[in-house]
Fold this sequence. Notes:
The chain starts with 16 loop residues before the first strand and ends with a strand. It contains five helices and five strands. By secondary structure, the chain is mostly helical. It has helices at residues 25-39, 42-45, 59-78, 90-97, 104-126; strands at residues 17-18, 21-22, 84-86, 135-137, 142-144. The radius of gyration is 20 Å and the shape is elongated. The longest helix is centred in the last third of the chain and has 23 residues, at 104-126. Strand 4 (135-137) and strand 5 (142-144) form a beta hairpin.
Amino acid sequence: GSDKVYKKGEFGFESGTSAGVAVSKNVLEADARKSLKKIMRQELINRFDDIVLFDPLTEETRDKIIKKLLADLSSSLRKQKIAVNFSPKVALWLSAEAQDMSGGARHLRRLVYEKINDFIIDKLASGELQEAKTVTVGEEKLILK
């Protein structure tokens, strides 16, 4: 339940089961409201329109999101006449890097930008990557070809 507010500076509540019994969304939302009342003034809580509870990402969903983010990045760069090819293992490599599932899709977007987009931008700025050149991402490191 919401008795476990994450201490990482984020608001979040664990869902799923409580002592082996499935917990309904209504119970989780009620627990979340109680927990918020302990750490926030009622005036601030009243400004919230709703409390949205998210289920943690599954590995399958995480992999789909990573593949979509890679496709979006490739498409964006293609518009700038920069061809980008990702090896089939790059999504697996990024998925392994994204072991912390609590960050959700934003965490995955940040990971793709930190690991791949920033590399490509650095290579463009240094002149190592010219227009219409292909960037290949291997499983262990990023490679220009």
